[in-house]
Write a structure and sequence with these properties.
alpha+beta, OB fold (Dihydrolipoamide Acetyltransferase, E2P), 1 helix, 4 strands, elongated, DUF3006, DUF3006 domain-containing protein
Length: 78
């Protein structure tokens, strides 16, 4: 289900977006479509990307395994 947010105002490099309940979300201005203005309504679609999640998890596990090979274990000596 798309999320509709209106642009309330701009504060520096952030846009303050407001949902239909009045909740505010700070959003980077440079990620918005060019030429948007306060008062406009934007539609967002937020979806899970399960394949990208699996890939990131696999990459993270590989990095952790590589780091574990170099870790002698035991207490940290300062």
């Amino acid at each position: 289900m798309p999320l509709r947010l209106s642009i309330d105002r701009f504060e520096g490099d952030l846009a303050v977006l407001v949902d239909d309940r009045g909740r505010q979300i700070n959003f980077p201005f440079d990620l918005l479509p060019k030429g948007v203005r306060a008062g406009e309504v934007l539609t967002f679609a937020v979806e899970r990307d399960t394949e990208a999640t699996r890939q990131l998890q696999a990459e993270t596990k590989a990095v952790q395994a590589e780091l574990k090979k170099r870790d002698p274990g035991g207490d940290l000596k300062l």
